[in-house]
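ok so dumb question maybe but i'm new to this and my supervisor (M.) told me to 'just get the structure for DSBA-like thioredoxin domain-containing protein' and walked off. so i did the thing. is this what she meant?? sequence i used:
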Amino acid sequence: MGGVGARVGECAGGGGGEEVMAVLEMADKEGKEMLANNTDAALADGPFGLLWFVATNSKGERETFWGVDHLAQVADHLGLDKPKTGEWKALL
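this is what came out, is it supposed to look like this??
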């Protein structure tokens, strides 16, 4: 077997090209499935632009936020401390 599997097998200590290719193919398939599932879930939330945040706080309350200018609201929803100094001050 040549190609990527053989090269990775060589780098990992020799041989194993078939095993490496099996892992890569499995990861590729699972990765594509995960991406498709996450995309479907994101679309079900009704996003209308980027950046779109879905945040669940410690009480189990789930809320969505749109735009980087809403990071302070995300932090509030999650119950995070908001620093009053440094770079964070301008953002939050």
